[in-house]
Amino acid sequence: MKYKFLMIAAAAMLASCSGENTDTEEAVSGQEDSASAEMAATPKLFADVPEGAQAMSLLGKPLYPREPSQALLDNLAAAKADYDADPMNADNIIWYGRRVAYTGDYRRAIEIFTEGIQKFPEDARMYRHRGHRYISIRELDRAVADYEMAEKLIQGTEDKIEPDGAPNPQGIFLTSTHSNIYYHLGLSYYLKQDYEKALAAFQAGQDLGLNDDNIVSTAHWIYMILRRLGRDEEAQASVANIHKDMTIIENMSYHNLTLMYKGDIPPEDLVNIDPNDPSGAAVAYGVANWFLYNGDEERAYDLMERFMETDSWSAFGFIAAEVDLSLR
After folding, report:
1. CATH number of the CATH domain containing 110
2. How far apart (Å, rounded) are the C-alpha atoms in residues 271 and 282?
3. Cα–Cα distance for residue pair 152/201, rounded to 1 Å
4. SS3 state of residue 196
């Protein structure tokens, strides 16, 4: 009898242990399924690229960053120290992300601005800066989405001057949060060949009337868009207020292009400019575009293809030329 009781007790204990193990396994399995579902529901921030690359060009070429200067690394270290001291400060997040981007690590910058969006979802600046770096890595749909959100968030808000990461010699800040959002929104639409929306965005930015630098930079894109749309008379009218004696502090390249559009500077004077920096890239693309919509496609595409041989792949003019060549 005693033996039978012990057998029954042992069986009950085994059954109990078996039930506990089953419950534990089911709980662990449930946690794994939940984690997998959460990971699947969280969208990737950017597309995969070869190791060491920041992006794939629209022509299928991996794009690698330049080696950053010591000055850029020193500025990054200072911004990182500020961020580490107070990671809930919006300005610290923005400058940390901007300084990371200046070293050429656009993907890491996107991660930092994404953190900023999670912490400050109503701060348009987070979308403004992340969208810029989505343009840099050719994630154009994501750039458009970020700038459309930024535009919504600034409605009814006070515009503020945006400090430059690399101030001009005069130390004068020339852009604002609103002007940068409209400018980059217009650029994002332009790169997607949505010219009507691009035109509206650049016109909204120009209407802010910040300064002559703002007028010539937006006039450049407005003129090109109108020419692309076949609205040549409107294009010419859009640069009627451009003149040689404007007070230009930074955007000399755009000023020269708009003077070329007016006929005050021949394109031959600009065609040999070095496109290895952002301002030169802007001119190179503007001149190539000039040839394109004036019927000299061979010269236009030749200039764009030579442009692709430079390493200024993050410049807006380079990306715009890349778009044109990818659609050729």
Report:
1. 1.25.40.10
2. 11
3. 13
4. helix
- Containing domain of residue 71, as a range? 53-158
Contact 138, 115 (CB under 8 A): no
Q: Has residue 104 been placed in a domain?
A: yes
User: Taking the mean position of all CA atoms in its chain, how far away is CA 139?
Assistant: 8
Tokens of 185: 């929104």
Q: How many CB atoms lie within 10 A of CB 51?
A: 6
For 173-204, what is each residue's pLDDT tens digit? 999 999 999 999 999 999 999 999 999 999 99
Distances (CA, A) of 215 to 76, 125, 168: 32, 22, 18
In this structure, is residue 120 part of a structural domain?
yes
Show the 3-state SS of 129-181.
HHHHHHHHCCCHHHHHHHHHHHHHHHCCCCCCECCCCCCCCCCCCCCEHHHHH
Q: State the pLDDT at residue 42.
A: 57
Ranges of the chain with pLDDT below 70: 1-42
- Give the pLDDT confidence score for residue 23 in this predicted structure: 46
Q: What is the structure's pLDDT at 31?
A: 44
In tens, the pLDDT along 55-78 reads 999 999 999 999 999 999 999 999
**Number of domains making up the chain:** 1
